[in-house]
Specification:
Length: 150
């Protein structure tokens, strides 16, 4: 499968993307949580570019391989805090909107609200949406993770 070429992003678009990034990372949600949420949504969407870059970024920022390897099975491990689990559940629900009639049920929202303030919840939702935005661009244009070994 070959990547599709696209028109380069304009400077205005890059400013908007940077604003989304800064806003979602400035509300006090732990960076590790944002990295995990990005990785999980990208796994669900099959975005190899974001899975690769997300895992590499998380590792560079101190995340352990054990936790990175277990993100897809976060419910079945003891590696994640209750707050991280609530954020991961929110990421899954908000990424899989069509999978249920009530896309993000109260139980998922309420669990996240126990661990995060209103601004932090807003930042989580914005980061999940931003991740899904990039996943969809990359999937549509068939972007692939770089082929590096070692």
């Amino acid at each position: 499968m070959q990547p599709r070429t696209t028109t380069p992003a304009s400077p205005e678009l890059m400013k908007a993307i940077n604003t989304l990034y800064k806003e979602s990372h400035s509300a006090g949600v732990p960076a590790a949580t944002l990295e995990l949420v990005h990785l999980r949504a990208s796994q669900i969407n099959g975005c190899s570019v974001c899975v690769d870059s997300g895992a590499r970024s998380a590792r560079k920022n101190g995340e352990t391989d054990d936790r990175l390897f277990a993100v897809a099975a976060w419910r079945e491990t003891s590696y994640f805090t209750d707050a991280e689990r609530a954020a991961l559940a929110l990421a899954e629900a908000a990424t899989r909107l069509a999978d249920r009639a009530d896309a993000v049920p109260d139980e998922i929202w309420d669990a996240a609200a126990k661990h995060y303030t209103e601004p932090q919840l807003g930042a989580l939702v914005l980061w999940i949406a931003t991740t899904n935005f990039f996943n969809r661009i990359n999937a549509t244009t068939r972007q692939m993770a770089p082929q590096t070994w070692g």
